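Task 17 of the worksheet. Students: predict the tertiary structure of the chain below and write it out as structure tokens. Keep your answer in the requested format; marks are given for formatting as well as content.
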Amino acid sequence: MKIDVALVERVKAGDQEAFEKLYREIYQDLFKFGCFMMGNEREAEDTVSEAVFLIWKQIKKLREPEKFKSWSFTILANCCKKQERDSAGSGGGTGRGISWKRVER
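Model answer:
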């Protein structure tokens, strides 16, 4: 699915309605990726929520609106890495051990 660059530009300008529309367009893909990375839906939901918050907060830093989707997935992947590190450090990890070699290219 191709993302509407004009919609991304509206989000960069602070348009919350545009962000909600963009969110609805990419949520399922983000959630599927989150499930794949985290190994379960509960952790995926938490991690996707964190990523969506960061996407909104950092959208003005996006220099190439046409790359919004890949930029969003990069933020989500980083959130997954952080969650796995934090869980492993507290002894509450999934025990799954994410293999980042399959993600990073």
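Marker's comment: Helices lie at 5-12, 16-38, 41-58, 68-90. The CA atoms of residues 25 and 49 lie 15 Å apart.
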